[in-house]
Every structure is written in structure tokens, then in C-alpha cells.
């Protein structure tokens, strides 16, 4: 399967600051996906990032709060802006892995705590 | 109604026993279906895709019932290492291959 390197793995941040999460994939992929998993919950899609175009955000998520970059086919960043304690969550990137039974592979996640 | 629903469990399973659980989905146009496994504090990992004819991978059997809009996962000869949360994942299709996750079913296999 595709190998995704996601960092940082965890961080503790002050409210009002921003954190940028990076995902690097070992192969070129058309779409990368960013998810949030709040404590005790399942995954919720934040946005889909395509190279060369603006990300597509799901209902409840906006670009000003979660700006995304996709400079090439192997890399993407998600920024959590102006953080509040409600943003404390695990953030995961994902790619469709056509080599691996058409499933989706996930990065190891970024555990964010906002204090 | 949630788009993808699962019994949260936990299912307490004696080692060696068989356990099965379902997942229902609301969108009849859903195109593909998966079971993922998530261990505590880890990312989800693909367990198996679910095909229309049903499929088996070792001790795991997945089935799809499009008429009733549910998928199922059966685990035979449960091992202690099968303890995890099993996520039902549905690709709703349309634009962009949007995955929708169920809330997960927690399985605890005990000696």
C-alpha cells in the first residue's frame, strides 16, 4: 500500500495559535483527503485536496479555519487556524490507494490538544 | 438518520468464538464498501473491501445486501488480537470519492 508520512504526530498548542500538519506520500496521487476524529467519535471528512485547484470543503468546514495546500501530487498540508479547545482532535490525511484493493490508506494521524 | 450506522458494541467475544455484526447505509447509490480496523490511538487500516458477491479473507467474511442496504462482517475463530474497533466505510460516489464512516463497532475478545 501507499506509505504516508504525517507530522507532527502530536502537539499541544495555545488557543489562538495555528498549527500546520504535513502529509507526504511515497507515490503520486490525484486526491488527498483530510479527516478529523474527535474523541470517542468516528472520522469526519474535512476537505478533499486536488493538486492545482482549491480544496473542496465539506459542510461545516471553511477555508479560513482549515486552509489546505496541495503544491504537488505527493504532498499536502492542513492548517488549523486560530485554535480553540474544541479543535482538540486527531487529524488524519488519506489517499485512495489503487494498488491496494482500491482501499484508502491513512497517515498515522496528528493528535492535537489545544489548551 | 445517520448515513452509515453501526452497533457501537462492545461485543464481548470468547476466544475461538464467532462474532458477526452489521452496518446499514442510507444512500442507495453508494458505490463501494469497506471494513476498516482501528486499534486504540492508531489510524484506521483497511481490513477488506466488500464485493457484491460477498468475499472472504481468512477468518473474515464480508457480505453486502444492496436490497436492504447493509453490509456485514463475520469473524470466525476469534483471536485476542482481533480486539479493535471495526469501522464500516461507504463510498457515496458522486464527485470526489467521498468516504462516509460509521461510528464503529468495538469488539473485545477475551480468553
Give a written overview of the molecule.
The complex is a heterodimer of chains A (115) and B (111). Chain A is mostly beta strands. In chain A, 0% of the residues lie in helices and 53% in strands. In chain A, the strands form two sheets. In chain A, strands 2, 4, 5, 6, 9, 10 and 11 form a seven-stranded mixed sheet that branches. The relative contact order of chain A is 0.34. By secondary structure, chain B is an all-beta fold. In chain B, the strands form two sheets. In chain B, strands 2, 4, 5, 9, 10 and 11 form a six-stranded mixed sheet that branches. A five-stranded antiparallel sheet of chain B has the order 1-3-8-7-6, with no helix packed on it. In chain B, a hairpin with a 6-residue loop joins strand 4 (32-38) and strand 5. The radius of gyration of chain B is 14 Å and the shape is globular. The termini of chain B are far apart. The model of chain B has no long low-confidence stretch (mean pLDDT 92).
SSE topology sketch:
The complex is a heterodimer of chains A (115) and B (111).
Chain A: E1 4-7, E2 10-13, E3 19-25, E4 31-37, E5 43-50, E6 56-57, E7 68-72, E8 75-80, E9 89-97, E10 103-106, E11 110-114
Parallel strand pairs in A: 2-11
Antiparallel strand pairs in A: 1-3, 3-8, 4-5, 4-9, 5-6, 7-8, 9-10, 9-11
Chain B: E1 4-6, E2 11-14, E3 19-25, E4 32-38, E5 45-50, E6 55-57, E7 60-65, E8 70-75, E9 84-91, E10 99-101, E11 105-110
Parallel strand pairs in B: 2-11
Antiparallel strand pairs in B: 1-3, 3-8, 4-5, 4-9, 6-7, 7-8, 9-10, 9-11
